[in-house]
Amino acid sequence: MIRITELRLPIEHAPEELEAAILKRLGISSKDLVDFIVFKRSYDARKNIALAFIYTIDVSVKNEEAILTKFGHDQHVRPSPDTSYHFVAQANSQSDNSLSERPVVIGFGPCGIFAALVLAQMGFKPIVLERGKQVRERTQDTWGLWRKNVLNPESNVQFGEGGAGTFSDGKLYSQIKDPKFYGRKVIQEFIKAGAPEEIAYVAKPHIGTFRLVGVVEKMRQEIISLGGEVRFQQKVTGFEIKDGEMAGINLESGEKLAARHVIIALGHSARDTFKALHEAGVYIEPKPFSVGFRIEHPQSLIDRARLGPHAGNPLIGAADYKLVHHAKNGRAVYSFCMCPGGTVVAATSEENRVVTNGMSQYSRNERNANAGIVVNVDPEDYGGSAENPLAGIDFQRALESKAFELGGRNYEAPGQLVGDFIAGQTSTEFGKVIPSYKPGVHLTDLAQALPDFVIEAMREALPAFEKKIKGFAMHDAVLTGVETRTSSPLRITRGSNYQSLNVRGLYPAGEGAGYAGGILSAGVDGIKVAEALALDLVKQQS
């Protein structure tokens, strides 16, 4: 196929105009065009130019070689790369029904789902252990905190089928390097499971929370249909390691599971499992992460600032943003997990602590825009070291406990108007922006919620962001605290073979292990680790 890039059309063009543009660009007639697919579609919404879609198209034509020769060194007409997925291994057919030690995947978030799915598709019949519940039951428990102030520590935004990504914007874009196009495999599996087909080509695809529920269920069903098992409410409490090799897993139920090939696909909040790994002697090191608050503005304000006269165009949808500021104290302040037309959600997994996150539905039509505004934290800030690799967890917990206290000790979150935060005064009433966080927001002085260096950097950054997005530092915008789980505070370090540095057969993967950040990158990492495990297993069986 031939790939055409930078094909520009007015945003409200008729469908047949795309084919006409392809024919014109290649200088061919319709009889020479076999087929085409849209690989990517972005938009150009700069304020002073005509609104336009920009396409990348893969085209199948007659006389392909002649056309490529005609365009020579034109970088916008080139051969299409092979983006299809190719399995690296297949289970030995003679051992399909006698795998006495099947691969085990711990965790069923995006990373665990794709690790298990790819292993199942290769015939290895994985066993998945998920501490939480099935996604629909889990949704009920999550609403229990949001509506009734009742937390289930084992079934919430962090724990359960689908992982933390289920209660998010469902973003499916990432800045990871992906030379083998594993991201396409992730996208295609989501579409096969019921996600909108447009996620294959829009520039910033997302699914949204409610749609993710059904998608995750269908992916689980495929794993099971291929011989895999998905066991819910199976909390791992210990690891059996003998002579530097994985031997087994201990479950809270008392069951001991023999396992020589284990993928650790934990989310960033599986703190007790991190502790169990550390106690078993698995090498772990502290890593940087970020902390801050959620900020909310009217979505209409963000649309006007970002899209100008194009604001409100339904073909574009709600506008997003990405901001960064390097503060004088040496800290980076940046927007994180921006959710257009979404809500701020309660995301704690531990009692008597408050954690915030952001979520959007597919429509992105809620009144407010929200994003994390966070500041980098290094191991030196929280006492992390080789001897104390779990120190970041203690740091997070202290901040989350303080937020619980500042919020009134009932799972309401502490909040403050942006104008008051910059001025250093306690807020007493909301203005034009009503916060979306449930169970509720208790106005206070957020300077008490985070370390001084974080507050200092944020107070400098907000007016700087105003210069990029008019209205960003508006007095009535709302800050809600605290955002502490931006990424894992540790890394379960692995080698080039994707196995733990000091435990053979243990495959750290995904966000909790420190190797991903978001649904797409976690899914890609799950595929990579599944491939490494499969190749090792085939080698041992041969």
Treating each run of at least 4 consecutive H or I residues as one helix, how many helices? 13
Number of strands: 23
Quote the distance from N terminus to C terminus.
38 Å
Query: How confident overall, as mean pLDDT?
Result: 94
What proportion of the residues is helical, as a percent range? 25-40%
- Uncertain runs are 95-99
In what order do the strands lie side by side in the largest sheet?
A: 14-15-18-13-21-19-20
Overview of the structural elements:
This protein has 13 helices and 23 strands. It is globular. The longest helix has 23 residues, at 519-541. With 542 residues, it is α+β, with helices and mostly antiparallel strands. The protein has helices at 15-26, 64-71, 110-121, 135-148, 182-192, 209-225, 271-279, 299-307, 379-382, 391-406, 418-423, 452-466, 519-541, and strands spanning 2-10, 33-44, 52-61, 77-79, 104-106, 127-130, 229-232, 236-242, 245-251, 256-258, 262-264, 285-286, 289-298, 324-326, 332-339, 343-346, 356-359, 368-377, 413-417, 441-443, 478-483, 490-491, 506-508. The strands form 6 sheets. Strands 14-15-18-13-21-19-20 form a 7-stranded mixed sheet.
